[in-house]
């Protein structure tokens, strides 16, 4: 999924990114607020696509249980000048669809980057 998301982002086409989410998926990009459903996710990803640069990523792990999997990926958005614009580590849950593809049901873009509490 990480490679698929990176490829979709780098096309700069919102529909390519939205195709990776179930209709009622939840996305969190700031560690605090969540956005559920296609319309809310489209608004957030549309803003993300406005940021210049190229996204790269590396899958850290995939823990699968039947048709559901927990993922973690490390990602970097590199600006046109070669500097890092954004970076983080995501935590995601995906579900296998009837056609064998996987879609996000929960995407926490910085979920694995958050500081430990307590």
UniProtKB/TrEMBL annotation:
Pfam assignment, any one: SnoaL_2
InterPro entries per record: NTF2-like_dom_sf, SnoaL-like
Superkingdom assignment: Bacteria
Domain SnoaL-like: 3-102
Protein name, per record: DUF4440 domain-containing protein
Source species of the chain: Phreatobacter stygius
């Amino acid at each position: 999924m990480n490679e698929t998301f990176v490829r979709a982002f780098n096309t700069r086409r919102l529909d390519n990114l939205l195709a990776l989410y179930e209709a009622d998926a939840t996305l969190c990009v700031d560690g605090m607020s969540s956005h559920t459903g296609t319309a809310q996710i489209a608004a957030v990803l549309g803003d993300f696509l406005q940021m210049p640069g190229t996204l790269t990523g590396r899958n850290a792990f995939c823990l699968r249980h039947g048709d559901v999997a927990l993922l973690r990926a490390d990602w970097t958005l590199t600006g046109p000048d070669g500097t890092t614009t954004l970076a983080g580590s995501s935590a995601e849950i995906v579900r296998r669809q009837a056609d064998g593809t996987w879609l996000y049901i929960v995407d926490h873009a910085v979920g694995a980057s958050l500081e430990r509490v307590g």
